[in-house]
Amino acid sequence: VSSLLSRCRTFKVLVIGDSGVGKTCLTHRLSAGQFPSRVEATIGVDFRERALDIDGEKIKLQLWDTAGQERFRKSMVQHYYRNVHAVLFIYDVTCPASFSGLVSWVEEWRQNSLGQEIPRFLVGNKSDLRDPSRKEQQVNQEQALSFAKAHGMTFFETSAKNPPAKRVNAQQGNRGLLYQQ
Ligand code: GDP
Ligand code: MG
């Protein structure tokens, strides 16, 4: 078993974005395969793992679920960005303020990533709550798409609660992928 484990490559994935957008629920969904019945507010950072088998190669995603207020704690932040393989920038599609908030998360990434061109993903969460009659109060996909293009990010909309692939009436193909960087 130990030799099998040692052959497993681990990828560090940083999950960032404003408080309440669903970072903890998304990492639960990815690691445990379900929406948590209850989540506590994250303090500092939590770690969850997801094992994957890609073309016969075993890999492990180490998900760093961070707390929103950590952006003010400069010393910790540098630690988060060390040896990171990918960053997920999360916003809530029903909360435009969380989308505007991404500007400062991107800035934080720029300051701490030391010019490394690691894969970045823009993730609009809570797509299950989209309400066509309240379009003005939500983040539209065109806006998010141009943000993704401008910042070299691949763009998804998803839901930790009810992922697109499981929805009966999924309009989006390919599990919520809207733009591939
Ligand atoms: P965090 O602060 O970014 O870690 O956000 P949490 O994961 O703690 O989630 C904040 C709130 O949003 C909780 O009440 C969750 O139940 C809710 N939530 C998270 N993801 C979703 C989702 O995809 N759909 C819906 N409807 N609610 C969600
Ligand atoms: Mg959290």
TrEMBL record:
UniProt keyword Membrane, yes or no: no
The UniProt record lists the keyword GTP-binding:
yes
Q: Source organism's superkingdom? A: Eukaryota
The UniProt keyword set, sorted, is:
GTP-binding, Nucleotide-binding
GO molecular function annotation: GTP binding; GTPase activity
Q: Which family does it belong to?
A: Belongs to the small GTPase superfamily. Rab family.
Q: Mind telling me what this protein is named?
A: Ras-related protein Rab-33B
Please report the organism this UniProt entry assigns to the protein: Channa argus (Northern snakehead)
Lineage of the native species? Eukaryota, Metazoa, Chordata, Craniata, Vertebrata
Task: List the range of the whole protein covered here.
Answer: 14 to 194 of 242
